[in-house]
Amino acid sequence: MKASAFVYPWDVVGDPDAARRIADLGVQQVTLASAYHSTRALTPRHPRHRIVTARHAAVLYPPDPERWADRPLRPYRQSWVEGADPYGEAARALADTGLEVHSWVVLAHNSRLGDEHPHTSVRNAYGDHYPWAPCIARPEVRSYVVDLAAEAAVRPGTLGTELESCGWYGIAHLHAHDKIGGVPLGGAAQYLMSLCFCDSCHAGYASLGADPEELRRAVLRALRPVWAGQRGAPLSKGRARGGPEERRAEHGRPSTGAEAPRRPKEQQAETAQGGGERAAEWAEVEKLLGTDHAATFAAWRHRVAAELQRDAVAAVREAAGGPFRVLLHADPAPHRLGANVGVDPAGILRHADGVVLPCTGSDAARADVLTPFLPHRTERTVLAANFTVVAGMGGSPATLEADATHAAGLGADEIRLYHAGLASDADLAAVRTALERLP
Q1: Which contiguous run of DSSP H or E holds residue 404?
Q2: How far apart are CA 203 and CA 198, in angstroms?
Q3: What's the pTM?
């Protein structure tokens, strides 16, 4: 079973032993960050440092000045890893050990972009902006995301890419000194708090024949019991997880295909939202909003996300100009948000070569994530089961062999390991043992 480990360039640059240490885990591939959000990361084995602070979202290669000339939205350069092209340097070192290098591209998640261009951010029903969450319904955001996907994915020496946050982001966001946990927000409440009411989304709701202001008032009414403590208890622990370092307890989010005709509301909910806790979340959304309002939000957001995903994949393939595998970090429930964006399983597998799915957790949770994609796979489709293997971040490296075997039995073709740079020596030893035992 093919395995790939997530890696940051700063895990490799300046550490002459890093590439060989990663290869010795038994992985065949690395998924190397080329465009990433702000973070504070541990580097427990690096000879020069123990903490890397990426102060803002940035690309880890030199961006093309001609592509971004005279554009207000453009990728930011980094200054916390030495060298002009840390991605390229790390990719060469990793490839020299025989590893395949695939890029890891974070798209619609950028706090600095939202701080400097607040009109581009998701604006909730109360009028609050989320700087970390660009609204993908805005034409300028969509153009930026698609061009960033093409440039950051197709780097020299890179054989494929994994696109993270290629869809809607929302309220959930690991943040310095966060103070938003006083009222517990379940999956339905998080969705309601993530609905956007910027001018682009207003126009989108109106295009579907809805009154945007009535939709906004419906969201406010639905959320009143949450603030009173009458609703909103989490439907699952850790549900809000976003990007791989945000994937802790569940490790793990809206979009049916834009090209698909509108389906009856009952069929939309049943098909799009999946089963288990995802179905329970969507049923709660419909209960709080009413089925008509819920269907309007779903139709608009699903269309926007599916069009972005289709265009981003096409842009990457055009930039590659040849064989180049494109996967998306995804969740089978279109209403979910964040790093693992909600997708329509049938729609996404018509465009992308596959998906990377959050599979840390119970057998039942893993089945809920993987099985919706099985009827839509083809010979070229990849279903990659993503496991957190950092014990201190909610991962379970000790059960990796059993968990990966279970995922394979459900139809997973490959596994992903989050994260080779962050894991302790004991975690990595457990990973090495598990990979030795897997077929």
Answers
A1: helix 400-410
A2: 9
A3: 0.91
